[in-house]
Design brief:
By secondary structure, the protein is an alpha/beta fold. It folds into two domains: 187 residues, E3 ubiquitin-protein ligase SopA (Pectate Lyase C-like, 3 Solenoid), CATH 2.160.20.80; 29 residues. Helices cover 19% and strands 11% of the residues. The chain is built from three helices and eight strands, in the order H-H-E-E-E-E-E-E-E-E-H. It starts with a helix and ends with a helix.
């Protein structure tokens, strides 16, 4: 409740970019865009860290092919938004609505998506790794060929979700409110040391990407 109070703003206090370019610059500069309206804006290929987009209306916006590090989308609306081929590294997606959005081929790594809505969302070929998905709704979501690993699905709802060809690792489906009708196949079984090497390599790649972005910004 305390977070809810802090987010509320008077209309005159809301930062409202008047163009797509200004919106991009505001997001990159970590300006507080809570409550702003960014409907249908083209914000593709956006690389940003610490973006503040709480309760922001991004209905129909294009956030595809981006890299978003620790963004704050608390209770933001991304209905029917294009968020495909985008990487989320951490971040607050609590109560965020991705209803009917396209998140295909995207990566949600270490995000907190508790109470988030993925109803009718296209998550084809997406990867949800180390994600908090407690109470999230995946009703009628397309999760074909998706990869889910080390994520909390407590009380999550997978009613009529399509997980054809999906694979999972360290997911306790018994804790879900409504588990998938057909559980995903497990990943190829590897010894613990092999998983440690793979995860260590993934963190290394992420660190290199972040370093390259920071270095480019400094230049």
């Amino acid at each position: 409740m305390s977070q809810e109070i802090k987010i509320e703003k008077k209309a005159s206090e809301v930062i409202q970019p008047d163009s797509e370019e200004n919106a991009r610059e505001a997001i990159r500069a970590r300006k507080d865009l809570s409550g702003a309206t960014l409907r249908n804006l083209k914000l593709d290929n956006l690389n940003a860290a610490g973006a503040i987009l709480r309760k922001t209306d991004l209905t129909g916006a294009d956030l595809s092919h981006g890299l978003l590090m620790n963004p704050n989308f608390y209770r933001a609306s991304l209905h029917s938004a294009a968020v495909n081929n985008t990487v989320f590294l951490g971040g607050d997606l609590v109560r965020t609505s991705f209803k009917d959005a396209d998140l295909s081929d995207s990566v949600l790594f270490g995000v907190d998506a508790e109470d988030a809505s993925f109803e009718g969302t296209n998550l084809r070929n997406a990867a949800l790794v180390n994600a908090k998905l407690k109470n999230a709704s995946f009703n009628q979501a397309n999760l074909t060929n998706a990869r889910l690993a080390s994520s909390d699905v407590t009380d999550a709802d997978f009613t009529d979700a399509d997980l054809t060809g999906a694979h999972a690792y360290r997911i306790n489906w018994s804790q879900a409110k409504v588990p998938p009708a057909i559980l995903p196949e497990p990943f190829v079984r590897l010894p613990r040391w092999a998983w440690s090497v793979l995860i260590g390599g993934l963190f290394g790649v992420i660190a290199l990407v972040v370093y390259a972005i920071v270095r480019r910004k400094k230049r």
